[in-house]
Amino acid sequence: MMKELISYNDSLMLRELGFDEACFAWYSKGQLILEHHIIFTGDQYYMRKEDCNAPTFSQAFRFFREKYQWQSYIEPTSDQHSRELGYNYCLWNYKTGEEYNTMPQNCPSGDWEFEKYEDAELACLIKLIEINS
Amino acid sequence: MENEFVSYELALALKELGFDEPCFTYYYNITGKLRTNISIDIDDVWISGSIKKIGITLAPTFSQAFRFFREKYDFFGCIDLHVSTPLHWYVRIDEISINDYVYHSDDDSKYYVNYEDAELACLMKLIEIVENV
Questions:
Q1: Are the Cβ atoms of A38 and B97 closer than 8 angstroms?
Q2: Whose CA is closest to B37, among A37, A23, A24?
């Protein structure tokens, strides 16, 4: 369940980029705290400067879609030679046309960068933070 | 925040298909309403598959639901934006191990105006596919 939430450092970066939405949890001194009775009711809780909300991956990707027009997706694929399954990410800005992906350029199609979906998802988020910082 | 969770009806369908993982919250069967007055500690795994509570249905997030289909049924739901006329979001469902798609919403002439509509349609299609396997 906790793997739904992005890390403390990534949460701080998102806050820098303007993320300011209600979340299921927040980080206090880097420690994750679930307090969604407060979130659901809309009450406020006290946060210090080093504290921040803990968005889910879904919220983070929605934030980049809606605020920065970056669409992203993870794609499963299998290596043509070994037949091993893996994942790439692809992200593109539907306003500017800018595009990044981890599909190898000079290799046979089907090559992949990440063995697990979650690794591709995390790398994709880090790339989004990097290009928008 | 409640939009992060699949509806009660879809939560029931997922339960029928074997979804039984820790969730942030649950629905009361008697009303179909989401429990929102929750305050828990991060280490208190109060909603887990091993704790059987009567009269509730676990409320997965969309992200948990998609992971469930990837890991248990080998189906991967992908949502992307198609730059065409009209500009629309589409749904593609892949069978991961054969590295090929089994459904594309464009083939059904279904075009989605926003991401959330496509995401919901994708989840409903995944349920339909698995129920008919």
A1: no
A2: A37
Assembly ipTM: 0.86
Domain that holds residue B51: 2-61
Determine the distance in angstroms separating the CA of A130 from the nearest CA of chain B, rounded to an integer: 22
**Could you identify the residue written with the tokens 């009269």?**
B55
Which residues on A lie below 8 Å from B78 (Cβ)?
73-75
Say how many domains are in chain B.
Answer: 2
The pLDDT tens digits of the residues spanning B108-125 come to 999 999 999 999 999 999
Say whether residue B42 is in contact with chain A using an 8 A CB cutoff.
yes
Element (H, E) at B79: strand B75-82
Under 8 Å CB pairs connecting chains A and B tally to 77
pTM (predicted TM-score) = 0.89
CB contact (8 A) between residue A41 and residue B36: yes
Let me know if residue B68 belongs to a domain: no
> Using one digit for the tens of pLDDT, what is the confidence trace for B84-110?
777 899 999 999 988 889 999 999 999
Whether residue B83 sits in one domain with residue B38: no
Indicate whether B82 and B55 sit together in one domain.
Answer: no
What does pLDDT average to in each consecutive run of 10 residues of chain A (133 residues)? 88 93 82 62 61 91 96 88 86 91 71 92 97 94
Do B78 and B127 share a domain, yes or no?
yes
Do residue B61 and residue A58 have CB atoms under 8 angstroms apart? yes
Residues 12-41 of A with CB under 8 A from B: 22-25, 31-41
